[in-house]
Amino acid sequence: MRVLGIESSCDETGIAIYDEQQGLLSHALYSQVKLHADYGGVVPELASRDHVRKIVPLIREALAQADTTIEQLDGIAYTKGPGLIGALLVGACVGRSLAFAWNKPAVGVHHMEGHLLAPMLEDEAPEFPFIALLVSGGHSMLVDVKGIGQYEVLGESIDDAAGEAFDKTAKLMGLDYPGGPRLSKLAAKGRAVDYKFPRPMTDRPGLDFSFSGLKTFAANTIAAQPDDEQTRADIALAFEEAVVDTLMIKCRRALKQTGYKRLVIAGGVSANQRLRAELASMMQQQGGKVFYPRGEFCTDNGAMIAFAGLQRLKAGEREDLAVKGQPRWPL
Ligand code: KG4
Ligand code: ZN
Q1: CB under 8 Å to 213, separation ≥6 — which residues?
Q2: What is the pTM of this model?
Q3: Which ligand has an atom closest to residue 140 CA?
Q4: To the nearest 10°, the Cα dihedral for 78, 27, 40, 95?
């Protein structure tokens, strides 16, 4: 089975072709980061328009790269939600229409399922069951994954997502959008100064997160300290350590609760090197293993949608003829 995947839920247009036997045949990505940079965040209407401009050329590119004809495709998968409704509808409209025109089955994929299965695009793929820590700009959740489609959300953020906290704190530090990777780069120059950042919700049982307090704590710390580059780097480091520590404590708890030895981290924040290193060393100590996708498949991409879509199509799932996007959609 060979599937064309389309991702357009936010500010990246991603197209890929995944083959059940041969693996990933191609993937093409266009990031709108520069378009939104002047506004300090994603402007939904501009995002939709840019998806419209890029989606068809990227589909052509992915087909050519994979040396695949339309006849060789067995289905089309597109991100149906959650995300920005205008952006989602571009992918859904193109995906559903092409499937109709080409007489192929179509399937709408949950964006977070895409992230969750992204480590399976790698040679060393995790076996089921595992705990998945999904940390992106829109979501933070811990999921018990027993198999394809067997997901139990064990905990999630009650306010800001981890990536959102990174982005908002970066903004407070005068860093450009998207702030997460920039803040992390600044933190690499930081010295260990104990600013007493909290580890939210770790002092009580449960697996939910809360990150908005960390952003507020960062704002107060920035206001109370001298405004120079080194101090900002020190605060960035303390903030990053607090987020990573908090995520680590909750992962340890989820693993203990389930008895699992495999941990998957995915979503944009899983590109964070400190998070990867800390979780890898924690898992090594516990005799377990951590899995994550390569850097380019941590953030939004078409490959994860093609892969997840293929699993869904194989299981017999089909989209009806209506073009639907679901901006809010529980996993
Ligand atoms: O998964 P993603 O591309 O889009 C969403 O579905 O939200 O995640 C983007 C998020 C942004 O908040 C971005 O700042 C964050 O991931 N991010 C990082 C890093 N790289 C991306 N946060 C911390 N450290 C990084 N290295
Ligand atoms: Zn995402």
Answers
A1: 198, 200
A2: 0.95
A3: 1
A4: -20
Contacts of 50 (CB under 8 A, 6+ apart): 11, 13, 30, 32, 35
- Any residues with CB less than 8 A from the CB of 134 and at least 6 apart, and which? 112, 115, 116, 140, 141, 142, 143, 266, 267
Q: Which atom of ligand 1 is nearest to the CA of 139?
A: 7
Over residues 107-131, mean pLDDT: 97
ipTM of the complex, rounded to two decimals? 0.98
pLDDT (mean) for 267-293: 96
Cα Rg, the chain, nearest whole Å: 20
Q: How far is the CA of 98 from the centre of ligand 1 (A)?
A: 30
Give the per-residue SS3 of 280-297.
HHHHHHCCCEEECCCHHH
Whether the per-residue pLDDT at 274 is higher than 90: the answer is: yes
Residue 178 has a pLDDT of: 87
Query: What SS3 state is found at 147?
Result: strand
